[in-house]
Amino acid sequence: MRMSMGLEARQLQVQKIAPRMIQSMEILQLPTLALQERIEQEINENPLLEIQESDPLAPDESDDSNEPSADTRAESEKELVVDNDHDNKDDFERLLNMDGELPNTFDDSFRRSSNRIQEEGDRRHDLMANAEMRPESLNDFLLHQLAEMDIDDRVEQMAERIISTLDARDGGYLRMPLNDLLPANHTKEDLELAQEALAVVQSLEPNGIAARDLRECLLLQLTPDLPYYEEMKTLISGHLQDLAENRMPIIQRKSGLTIDAIQAARETMHKLNPKPGNAFTKTYVPNVTPDVIVEQDEDGKYKVRLDDDRVPQLYISEYYRKRLQDPTSTDEEREFIKKKINGAQWLIDSIEQRRSTLTKVAEAIVEHQKRFLDEGPEAIEPLKMQQIADKVGVHVTTVSRAVDDKWVQTPRGILPMKRFFVGGTQNEDGEDVAWDTIRLKLQTVIDKEDKSKPLSDEDLVEELGKAGMTVARRTVTKYRKKMGIPSSRQRRDWSLVKK
């Protein structure tokens, strides 16, 4: 291989996204609460950004002769773009004129208002007061019980080691073999000690903890005072898989129990907990705040508005406008202000662009899914993001960002905006039918079936066809499983079968 050094000229076509476009896309994708946090972060980093606040102690605002309207200020600021090539003379001139139109209510030094300081202090106080206490973990709960027991120190140490391997997210099962918790050269006595320690841990609450499989977990929860204790013990010990597959005749033949006894014991088994450690896993419940509100007016038409009242109105600091024309300002200070003006204006424009795009996308969605809002989920129409993109006149990725993690408040409740986008197929008449409509119909058919002889997937295809929905068997099987509906054999109620 010959290697050489030299200069080479190449012409390449490379697509780059401008920083301003990147920021606009990021702002568009943020839900309302995240946007508030982003604005607060930008305000802390950019002293030129100010929040337009209404002061209850301020003079009467009914007199418009002195105070320009918010629309006037927003329009004048929207046109502000720093032009570094021409020394920004036009922009500085306009900024100076704006200062003349605004009331002289600011000092020559930058500082936060007393209301702003009070508001930040209240927010920090609320965060501290409302901070959740750290919940007790599964390991801590078990260790507290273990500490109250009068057992041998070696057994206690081994029990602590076992407890340290348990994971609440895994249901509290012991997934590690006892041999792996012992030294490589462990003796028979060491293994017996580990088994004794395991028995101690399994005697703790919650019942069934530290089991090595589902069978052991359920058996640990059985007590002689439970109804059908012996029947449950028999079923769990030797027929757990047959129970899962609803093979009642096979269980009856092997165990000698009647169908009625098996059914009754299985109903009682449903009260046992197959994952006892899950009680110590904190379920995440998202704090849903609607970004869009859809309301119906007196004429029955749906109106869309953004719920962005909590998003502050931003403008560029009046103090720094003055500093641009102040002869005492240094070149570094002017350069700093130019840079911050660009950042501030980009943020203001991005927020306004988000408001416009989100409104247009929401209006297009509502117009397409009017039947869904009128009649309910069974009337939802198939809808792709590309359809909304074509209607609004934007790229499909813009629609994706606009609806991502956004919620809409409708007469049907608060729904994620992505809920309105569903795939579909065509019925016998060539009309589009959403998959959600097919799933609802599938659930209705299964609910009404004869449980002594449930419908197979082929039978379900036939029933859907009678309703004008042409669906393949594999599609019915896929959606049945996604809906958590067992197979026809598992749905059979053997107590209804004629003997």
TrEMBL record:
Segments of skewed composition (Basic and acidic residues): 70-88
Chain segments carrying region Disordered: 46-88
Keyword Coiled coil among record annotations: no
All residue ranges annotated as the RNA polymerase sigma factor 54 DNA-binding domain in the record: 335-492
Pfam families listed in its UniProt record: Sigma54_AID, Sigma54_CBD, Sigma54_DBD
Keyword Nucleotidyltransferase attached: yes
Protein name: RNA polymerase sigma-54 factor
The species this protein was found in: Roseimaritima multifibrata
Gene that this sequence comes from: rpoN
